[in-house]
Each structure stands twice: as C-alpha cells, then as structure tokens.
Amino acid sequence: MNTSQLVDPFGRRITYLRLSVTDRCDFRCTYCMSEDMQFAPRAQILSLEELYAVADAFIGLGVRRIRITGGEPLVRKNLLSLLQRLGARDELDDLAITTNGSQLGELAPQLRAAGVRRLNISLDSLQRERFAAFTRRDKLDQVLAGIDAARAAGFDRIKLNSVVQSGRNDDEVLDLVEFAIDRGLDISFIEEMPLGSVVSHSREQTFCSSDEVRQRIEQRHSLVRSSTVTGGPSRYWQVVGSDTRVGFISPHSHNFCGDCNRVRVTAEGKLVLCLGHDNALDLKRLLRAHPGDGERLRQALVEALRLKPERHHFASDEQVQVVRFMSMTGG
Ligand code: SF4
After folding, report:
1. Single pTM value for the model
2. Are 252 and 316 in contact (CB under 8 A)?
3. Is the C-beta atom of 331 inside 6 A of ligand 1?
C-alpha cells in the first residue's frame, strides 16, 4: 500500500480537505438549520490542536488545499491561531474559508495576514427582507460590509455562493451576477442539496437546475466555458468582458463525482468520504486515544480511503438519503 499519499479504490488522488471547525453559526438559514438547533456539546468538538493534527496528517499525505468550513467558521474562538499555523505550511497551495460573511468586517485583514488566500461568501439575496427570511437574521448590511472589507484586504480570489430556489430567489440571479461583476468577484450558483432535515419547504417545489440558471444569465451576458479547473465541483464560465467567472454546482443534474478529489472532516472529527454516503471514520476517538501519534493517524486515513464510494446517488425526486445537517459536515 502506498502510504505517502491518499488514493481511493477508483484511482482518485485526494489533494483537497474540507475541515469544519465548528457546527455553530450566527445565522439559521432555512435550508440548513432549524431555529432551535441543538449543537454538539463543546467537548465533542475537536480542539484547535486536534484540528491542526488532522490537517497536518492530511498534508503529510499529499493534501495541498484546505478549505476551512463550519457552521460558520469565523465564530470559532481563536480560529486565527489555527489559520496562522496552517498559513505557515509551505506545502499548501491554497488555504481558503467558506463563510457567511457576517464577521468579515472585523476579521478580513487578519485572515489575509494569517495566509488565507481565497474566500467563498454565501449570499442568496440582495433584498433585505428576503435575506432576513432565508437566514432568519436581519444582517444583509453587515454581510455586504464584510464583502467590501474582504475586497479591501486583497485576497487572491473572492467567490460568492448562492443557493438558488425556484420561486424564492431565482428572480435575483441576474442581480447577483451584476453585483459580482461590479465588484470583480466570482459567483457560483448551487442547486439545493438533499441534506439535513428541512421542514419549511418541499424541495421538489423549489428545485431550480443549473441549466435554468445559466439560461437566465445568458439572456443578458455572453458566457464562455472557462478552462479553470479548481478540483471542486463547480463548472466555470467566464462572463465575457468582465473578470467574473460564474460557476454552477449541480449535485442533482450533473454527476461530478468522477474527478472528486476531496474529503471532509466534521467539527466532531468524523472523516466523511462522500456527502452522499454515511461512511465515516471517527478521527476524534483515535486522536484522543493516541494523542500526538501522527503516524497512526496517517495510517488510519490511508485505510479509510478504501471506503470512499465511487459516486453519490442524489436525485431531486428521490428520498433524502443522508440525514445529516450541512452545518455538521461543512457543506
Ligand atoms: S447555511 Fe451557512 S450561514 Fe446558513 S445557517 Fe448553515 S452554516 Fe450558517
């Protein structure tokens, strides 16, 4: 067995880790959390030291890109100390964060200084009341100020992520694209994934495919297929005459599993090999039983990769297969 890098049974080399640092969030987006969300007890969440040990093991096995996720990662106390340690690792080609943007007004310069290169900022609506209804928090202005602060901080790239729902915000697709173009940002439109228990709406009624979204954008803008390969699930198109790329993340309508190079670790230390399956390895138990034993951790990761499934099996008319809150797996 090759223990110097992570290769799954289908020959896919794992170079990308999504590391969730908290299940908590200051928003309560309707497709993600209930208002009275029960979070994991703090002792169940990996410590910053344990999170670094996990990242270190993955880096030792060839991971070159790490994305910090949540919940909302920026509500994790002392996150900057972890980011500074990761930012100092020369092996990493990329250190990125996915955030709801609410804390960026204060933290953007410190994140950049710590070595974070790219940000993904969630933004589903530019309309205050709608934003408040989606997130159950009236904080659009705070997020927009956070986006401005991030632009000023000089990240390599900032991307907006918008979950599009038919009849809810699909009429804002063009407004969101204009917003991104005006600010030199990229934007990805995401089909809602069948994860978590959502009671506020039926997903069949709100499903809006990436193809529909792209057709709307093409009513106003020319899009050309971008050669950008991020290793992520987005397929990118360049908006002609702008710096903006538009991405489409389509877990339902296009199968992107074939070149999946990523795994996730939840805030509770579960290694999730694929969002569409329940295979998971409890890294926390291992970390706490054998603290400081990096070799054992790396060996466990190599062995776990044998369980990475070939593909997910989401379909918009299928029963939800995975009942797991997005805030636990870090999207
Ligand atoms: S979708 Fe993101 S911002 Fe919204 S509640 Fe979930 S973790 Fe928080």
Report:
1. 0.88
2. yes
3. no
Tens digit of each residue's pLDDT (9 = 90 or more) over 18-49: 999 999 999 999 888 999 999 999 999 999 99
Mutate to test the pocket of ligand 1, among 20, 33, 138 (most ligand atoms within 8 A of CB): 33
- Report the C-alpha gap between 107 and 171 in whole angstroms: 32
* Ligand 1: centre distance to CA 65 (Å): 22
33 C-beta closer than 6 A to ligand 1:
yes
Round to whole Å and give the CA distance between 226 and 238: 5
268 in ligand 1 pocket by Cβ < 6 Å?
no
Q: Is 121 in the pocket of ligand 1 (CB under 6 A)?
A: no
Report residue 1's pLDDT band, with 50, 70 and 90 as the boundaries: very low
Q: Please say whether the beta carbons of 187 and 247 come within 8 A.
A: yes
What does the pLDDT read at residue 249? 83
